[in-house]
Amino acid sequence: MSEAASRRIPDVTVERLPVYRRAAMDLLSAGMRAASSDLLAKRAGVSAATLRKDLSYLGSFGTRGSGYELSFLLGQVDRQLGLDRAWPIAIIGIGNLGRALASAPGFAGRGFRVAALLDVDPHVVGQFVNGIEILHLEELPRMADKSQIAIGVITTPARAAQEVAGALEAVHTMAILNFAPVVLQVGKGVAVRNVELATELQILSFHRLHRF
Amino acid sequence: MSEAASRRIPDVTVERLPVYRRAAMDLLSAGMRAASSDLLAKRAGVSAATLRKDLSYLGSFGTRGSGYELSFLLGQVDRQLGLDRAWPIAIIGIGNLGRALASAPGFAGRGFRVAALLDVDPHVVGQFVNGIEILHLEELPRMADKSQIAIGVITTPARAAQEVAGALEAVHTMAILNFAPVVLQVGKGVAVRNVELATELQILSFHRLHRF
Known about the structure:
Two copies of one chain form a homodimer. Chain A has nine helices and nine strands. By secondary structure, chain A is of the alpha/beta class. A seven-stranded mixed sheet of chain A has the order 5-6-4-3-7-8-9. A two-stranded antiparallel sheet of chain A has the order 1-2. Chain A is globular and about 60 Å long. The model of chain A is unreliable at 1-5 (pLDDT under 50).
């Protein structure tokens, strides 16, 4: 699929591709080679119509009777998501959460590799996590020159997050995964995904209070 | 606001309430007592029209000229989100991520308290994190009797997550924050929020690949 065509994939579809990817992997692990849209959709927690529509953006069509060939589907999704390479990521802020992410086998899985761990605390700089030395944030430009950091992961306290986002933008890191409870102000070209843990709990609290 | 009325608050609005809450808190910390919808909206990263519409569901209306009175707004949002109490939460799976959450000051903030840490690994059970003893998962029913676990946080490996979700449902924990890369199958009344770290990276990878 050309870049021009993929540009038209709606964001909501992009957000579901990783879910289809996992559903396909789970079914492959279970020994299946093909699956119906009904089964894939059930695994992904969406309607079969949504799944068929989403996958049609990839030029992927199931066959009546035999359904989607799973390893072919997986390859298509991976190519579309850009998981057929290893994007270098930097984690900035190596407290408990940064450490957990740096050492979680499932976090920087296929498609990613942790290229840099950065902090500003002199007690933390110089330590190793999972065989990677924690460097001072000042080293970010050098690390970016060396490794072309594709994605910056911000796990700093809230007060430091905006400055770190600016530092990432300055070295042309155009994708940020932000765990700090701050709305980051970044340039138009920078993609930001926020993982807000307190927010998630608050939304569950609302449901717990009102919906039962 | 009555429960019947609050039922009609759209999910997208509920998801933005925590963001408005934080914007109001930030402005209060900066010494402001009131703020215009424009300023609040900018801080929250939404349009002023969206913010005004969302807050109107709470029966909260800004005053032309002086805007929203921040501490009143905060009180309304907190009451709506159910943060005017301390929901007991249980974290199940005390690996790196579970430990990070158990000791993160910002995670179980206002409105929540960590009531139980549970695992099945005999090397982990009996350890303490942040002054709380890690108990065996078998103790969940007893802890739920004692503390009425309102929210279960699943930080187990993927293969264990569904069983843990079932155990939480069995003790009437009707809200689950799931970090495991699995689509949980739960009953209709159970609210699940998924935090999928690999998924977030994959979405950023897509943007990195196609949008720049």
